[in-house]
Fold this protein.
Amino acid sequence: MGDLVVVAPVLPTRETALRHHLRGLAASPLVQLPHATHFARFVVVPLDGPRLLFSSRFDVSVESYIGALARLPAAATIWCHCESGEDLRDPARLSEYLTDNRLTSPYLLAPWPKVSVAEVNEALERQARLSALVVEAAVLGPIGLAHAFRERFPR
Amino acid sequence: MERRQFGRWGAVTALTPLRRGWTPWLRLVFLFGSLTNVAAQPILRSRVIALGRWTLLPRAGKPPAMVFETNWSGAWENYIADLGRIMPWQWRSIWSGAERFPGPLPVTDLLSWVDVYDHGADHFYTGYDDTATTQNVSRALALRPRLARFIAEVDGLGPDEFGRHWRRFTTEVQGLV
């Protein structure tokens, strides 16, 4: 389980364009990551000038997540609005940039700290399946109910 | 603040400048919080918060600022007001050194203060299913081991015996489905 906070200075001339870009994203670039993300956000905040804050909680190590993030062209498009002497379209440079601008959070509160995104979604799916069967059970006889249960929840 | 609600999830990003000398105390508070969940129990029990993250942001020639990020399910006014009501001393221990902090109570002042310092999110993402809320994720995770036990328990039972176990099981887990 990993957690990442990156705060990077935004080019003053690009603040409005960055906000517009982030707010207009039809699909999240994070969908393309090979690693599951619990919650993530991009937000431009005022701190000695505009800063892009990116934070994320995920199921792999920070190093793996940063590496995967840096390989996304859509992520490079976002961080190219930030101050850097390097070409952030280069995944290796972007990876370094994210690592250099990383901050460690001294306190994190998560109600299910050791559960993966896949486990959350699987638990929700099984819960929904059971809820549906509870409703159907009212019209099923004993044989039908036992059969339906075993079909939906095989051992 | 318009960009605070994303489907079922709320997102606050409250950035507050800290007064000089507050950071060492804050580090102790966060260390305590990292070692034990005692102080966070009231909010964890309420099954509303999905994430809370506190980070110190360095500023040039000034004391750091603190950013508080949180995600939850439901209306933000209720969430912040409940936080203020059920965890007043925890709020004071963290935010008393923050600029213009009015205190957790009355919650109307707290809401106005959060509204001033919150930046919401310009882009929000979650990998959870669209139906997820903090409440139903908590229930689904609590159901998981019970359902696994039940599956093993009824393996090989005939229909009548299965029916008896089913009625008992569904009564036990009715608050989780």
